[in-house]
């Protein structure tokens, strides 16, 4: 742990110590062919099949259709790679509490809610979208060369960045993690580099890409500690062996970023505003994953961006209420009250505060909170159950 | 780890008598889920030979992904609802002694999110209910598992009795199946005895 | 998915007793009294669901996007060739502006789940449900709600096709050998496919062809042709049951 923390410090230092040499050649973007269309029979077939997969995503119950989230994501990508490049891209936001994004041959991109919960600024988001887009773009060039079709290179059709999460919630996700690391290192490196160029070219700080990886590593550690495991075990076991280590990758990204223009605003505030309407929902899903350490890490990370908002305090209270030791319940009640003070106004606060107090044996206070919940929300779907608790 | 699990299954199966899915005929059935839970169905059900946990028993009509009744028979404090598949990376939440009735559906939800990659689940109605005279909760829910993306609905009745959790749930796809067999479940839970 | 793993593990456990498990396996079910005269009905071919991946040591499925892409492409081409030989008017499902796509997708998922249940709990003797014994008939459905879908109007039946392939990983094969030394049989790889016909007036499943041990490596065009031929074997109302479909 100590070694790791030290290494991380050294790593962050690396980025800043290196003079920002904006080498012109490193900054060149590849030439862009307007409105790319599949050229060969084979390729048309592949696009058709990607269209098929896109239909499934589009119709999935997991898709986040409400509001402007997908529009926002697309705006960020378009700003980053340019309007002409992104003209053919569709972005789908999916409710899956894992860190992941994928892009298909036909220009459809899938972004998971776990990613949106974890990245801290528009620049970090752009770092991942840019990396994904780079896979897509590089594939175009491969097509130009033709005859490169084979098992490994077809992998570039669907690329996955990340998948690093301490809370794999299902084997589907685990498998994705596995498949991430079957990518050739070369392809990942190429996409990383091109992604960085998009990032720098659009004025975002190029160092953001490295920050994403550092944060994910720290989350891994927090999660392991929360489960009373040794953090470093996570890095040596299983499929993490088979890919360029996160650490190595973060270091390389920082190194490369240092060669590019430093960039300006990471636009943390704009990102925060765009995801704000969805944040309570994303937080709820995270808090229920039974990963105390990882969830706490994410919350504290978010609080650095926005301060402890009502939403964050509420989620923190929920996290403690779920673990439910006497100390947790006491903290939970405190955080619920703090959340209220910070402007959290949904009536479920009174309910959960009441439940937390009740569970901790603070019966009278608990009842008062539950009563105010029922007064505010008499037709709640759980009103009968809450009434029963009051009557006990 | 998974290796160990597979081998445990193999060894376990070869040392014990081979179990087949059994017919649950109308009439009283005791010791459900190796607990003091009993029920008296008025129609036929099938009991799966598979167990998802030490005190878990599964009944079905057409197969457990089409209609499934799960009996959690007295899960003790400190134990998860289901057998943990990956204790290290996906530990399940445990039954706790200080659980309120509303914590029962919350425990099920958190378990499903971890165990079955359920990324969307809504607990809908919650109301007090008696499980053979014990104060408990009756609740409805809707969820989607990531593996088949079939929208499912569920209903459950549960109570903490003597420091152990008793919970019986019914789950089926929202399209057609849930409604088809809901009445049978309703009848069944009126016959539950501890 | 875990859930399937456990299921598979228990299946396997039962296989220890019923060593004839693969041999006694049935593959086709017909609703009692159902028949289809050639050239009398209109059939809607729904979008095939195709998954290809690897099977880990523990029997867990790991999707492989690349293989799936290849299989989709190959199977789509083979189906296209086979369509004209089914003896009835076949239309491929096309999207409409009905806004029904999410529901259609749900029916497709539900069909897959029903078909899986038929194989698991009726065709497969080792795991058959007592209430699903063959003398109890072939009684499965996705429900009459499907009749009200506008985008299926004009068709009498819907043909659903799903395939799922899991190629055994090295670890899985090692386990297989290890287990064999102990006198235990562990299968490596899963090659499942179903083709099923739903009556669009009642929502009943009137014909299902399903196999847990399908042939043909769907990652290759030849393999996909073989698979499609197997899937459509015994298709009701097909005029000639010959090797014509095989495409050699």
What is this structure, in a nutshell?
Chain A is mainly alpha-helical. Chain A is built from 21 helices and four strands.
The whole-angstrom Rg of chain B is 16 Å
**Main sheet attributes: strand count, strand direction, barrel closure of chain C:** 8 strands, mixed
CATH topology of chain B: Protein Transport Mog1p, Chain A
Pair with the biggest interface: B-C, 42 and 51 residues
The biggest beta sheet of chain B reads:
8 strands, antiparallel
**Count of domains of chain C:** 1
Percent of residues in helices of chain C comes to 25-40%
Residue stretches of chain C low in confidence (pLDDT < 50, at least 5 long) are: 1-23, 182-186, 240-248
Mean pLDDT of chain B: 89
- What's the average pLDDT of chain C? 73
Quaternary state, please?
heterotrimer
Shape designation of chain C? globular
Task: Please compute the radius of gyration of chain C using only Cα atoms.
Answer: 18 Å
Number of strands of chain C: 8
Strand content of chain B: 35-45%
Structural class of chain B: alpha+beta
Per CATH, the architecture of chain B is 3-Layer(aba) Sandwich
Total domain count of chain B? 1
Structural commentary:
The complex is a heterotrimer of chains A (about 400), B (about 190) and C (about 250). Chain A has about 400 residues and is mostly helical. Chain A has two domains: about 1-270, no CATH class; about 310-390, Serine Threonine Protein Phosphatase 5, Tetratricopeptide repeat (Alpha Horseshoe), CATH 1.25.40. Chain A has helices spanning about 1-15, 25, 40-60, 70-80, 85, 115-120, 120-145, 150-155, 170-180, 185-200, 210-225, 235, 245-255, 270-275, 280-285, 290-305, 310-325, 325-340, 350-360, 365-375, 385-390; strands spanning about 90-95, 100-105, 110, 160. In chain A, helix 7 crosses helix 11 (about 210-225). Residues about 1-25, about 140-185 and about 235-245 of chain A have low confidence and may be disordered. Chain B has about 190 residues and is of the alpha+beta class. Chain B has one domain (about 20-190): Protein Transport Mog1p, Chain A, CATH 3.40.1000.10. Chain B is built from three helices and ten strands, in the order H-E-E-E-E-E-E-H-E-E-E-E-H. Chain B has helices spanning about 1-15, 105-115, 175-190, and strands at about 20-25, 30, 35-40, 45, 55-60, 70-75, 120-130, 135-145, 150-160, 165-175. In chain B, the strands form two sheets. In chain B, strands 1-4-5-6-10-9-8-7 form an eight-stranded antiparallel sheet. Chain B has a two-stranded antiparallel sheet with strand order 2-3. In chain B, a hairpin with a 2-residue loop joins strand 9 (about 150-160) and strand 10. Chain C is an alpha/beta fold and about 250 residues long. Chain C has one domain. Chain C has five helices and eight strands. Chain C has helices at about 1-15, 65-85, 100-125, 170-180, 220-230, and strands at about 30, 40-45, 50-55, 60-65, 90, 155-170, 190-200, 205-210. In chain C, a hairpin with a 5-residue loop joins strand 3 and strand 4. In chain C, helix 2 (about 65-85) packs across helix 5 (about 220-230). The longest helix of chain C is centred in the middle third of the chain and has 23 residues, at about 100-125. Mean pLDDT of chain C is about 75; it is low at about 1-25, about 180-185 and about 240-248.
């Amino acid at each position: 742990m100590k070694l790791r923390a030290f290494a991380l410090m050294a790593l962050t230092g690396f980025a800043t110590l290196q003079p920002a040499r904006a080498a012109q050649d490193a900054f060149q973007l590849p030439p862009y062919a307007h409105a790319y269309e599949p050229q060969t029979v084979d390729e048309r077939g592949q696009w058709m099949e990607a269209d098929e997969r896109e239909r499934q995503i589009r119709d999935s119950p997991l898709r986040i259709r409400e509001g402007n989230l997908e529009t926002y994501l697309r705006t960020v990508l378009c700003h980053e790679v340019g309007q002409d490049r992104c003209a053919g891209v569709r972005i789908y936001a999916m409710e899956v509490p894992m860190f992941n994004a994928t892009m298909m041959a036909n220009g459809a991109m899938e972004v998971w809610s776990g990613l949106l919960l974890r990245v801290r600024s528009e620049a970090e988001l752009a770092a991942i979208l840019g990396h994904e887009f780079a896979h897509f773009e590089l594939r175009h060039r491969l097509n130009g060369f033709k005859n490169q079709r084979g098992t490994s290179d077809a992998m570039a059709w669907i690329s996955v960045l990340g998948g690093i999460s301490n809370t794999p919630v299902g084997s589907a996700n685990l498998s994705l993690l596995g498949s991430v690391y079957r990518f050739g290192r070369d392809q990942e490196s190429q996409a990383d580099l091109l992604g960085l160029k998009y990032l720098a070219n659009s004025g975002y700080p190029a160092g953001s890409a490295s920050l994403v990886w550092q944060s994910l590593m720290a989350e891994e550690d927090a999660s392991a500690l929360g489960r009373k495991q040794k953090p470093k075990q996570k890095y040596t076991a299983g499929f993490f062996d088979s890919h360029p280590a996160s650490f190595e990758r973060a270091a390389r990204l920082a190194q490369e970023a240092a060669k590019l223009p430093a960039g300006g605003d990471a636009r943390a505030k704009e990102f925060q505003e765009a995801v704000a309407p969805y944040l309570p929902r994303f937080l709820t899903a995270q808090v229920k994953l039974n990963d105390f350490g990882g969830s706490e890490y994410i919350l504290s990370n978010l609080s650095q961006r926005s301060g402890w908002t009502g939403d964050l305090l509420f989620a923190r209270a929920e996290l403690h209420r779920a673990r439910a030791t006497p100390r947790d319940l006491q903290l939970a009640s405190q955080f619920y009250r703090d959340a209220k003070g910070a402007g959290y106004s949904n009536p479920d606060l009174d309910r959960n505060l009441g439940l937390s107090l009740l569970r901790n044996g603070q019966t009278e206070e608990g009842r008062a909170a539950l009563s105010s919940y029922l007064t505010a929300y008499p037709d709640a779907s759980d009103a009968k159950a809450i009434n029963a608790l009051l009557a006990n | 780890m998974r290796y160990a699990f597979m081998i445990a299954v193999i060894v376990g199966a070869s040392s014990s008598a081979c179990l087949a899915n059994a017919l649950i005929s109308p009439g009283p059935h005791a010791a459900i889920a190796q607990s003091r839970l009993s029920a008296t169905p008025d129609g036929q059900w099938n009991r799966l030979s598979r167990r998802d946990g030490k005190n878990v028993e599964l009944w079905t009509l057409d197969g457990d992904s089409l209609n499934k009744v799960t009996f959690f028979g007295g899960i003790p404090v400190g134990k998860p609802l289901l057998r943990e598949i990956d204790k290290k990376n996906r530990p399940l939440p445990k039954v706790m002694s200080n659980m309120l009735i509303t914590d029962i559906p919350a425990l099920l939800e958190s378990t499903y999110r971890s165990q079955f990659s359920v990324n969307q689940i809504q607990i809908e109605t919650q109301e007090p209910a008696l499980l053979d005279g014990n104060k408990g909760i009756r609740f409805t829910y809707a969820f989607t598992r990531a593996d088949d993306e079939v929208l499912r609905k569920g209903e459950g009745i549960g109570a903490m009795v003597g420091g152990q959790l008793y919970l019986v749930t019914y789950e089926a796809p929202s399209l057609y199946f849930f409604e088809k067999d809901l009445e049978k479940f309703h009848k069944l839970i009126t016959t539950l005895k501890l | 998915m875990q859930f399937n793993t456990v299921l598979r593990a228990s299946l396997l456990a039962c296989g220890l007793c019923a060593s004839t498990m693969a041999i006694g396996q049935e593959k086709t079910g017909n609703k009692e009294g159902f028949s289809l005269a050639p050239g009398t009905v209109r059939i809607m071919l729904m979008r095939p669901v195709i998954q290809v991946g690897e099977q880990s040591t523990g029997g867990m499925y790991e999707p492989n996007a690349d293989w799936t892409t290849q299989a989709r492409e190959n199977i789509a081409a083979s189906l296209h060739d086979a369509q004209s030989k089914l003896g009835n008017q076949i239309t491929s499902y096309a999207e409409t502006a009905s806004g029904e796509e999410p529901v259609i997708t749900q029916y497709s998922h539900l069909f897959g789940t029903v078909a899986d249940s038929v194989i698991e709990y009726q065709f497969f003797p080792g795991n058959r449900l007592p209430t699903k014994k063959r003398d109890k008939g072939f009684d499965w459905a996705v429900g009459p709600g499907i009749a009200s879908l506008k985008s299926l109007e004009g068709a009498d039946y819907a043909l659903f096709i799903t395939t799922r392939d899991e190629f055994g990983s090295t670890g899985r094969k090692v386990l297989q050998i290890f287990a064999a030394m102990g006198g235990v049989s562990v299968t490596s790889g899963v090659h499942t496919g179903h083709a099923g016909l739903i009556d669009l007036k009642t929502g009943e499943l009137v014909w299902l062809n399903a196999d847990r041990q399908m042939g043909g490596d769907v990652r290759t065009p030849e393999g996909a042709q073989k698979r499609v031929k197997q899937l459509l074997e015994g298709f009701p109302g097909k005029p000639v049951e010959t090797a014509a479909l095989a495409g050699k």
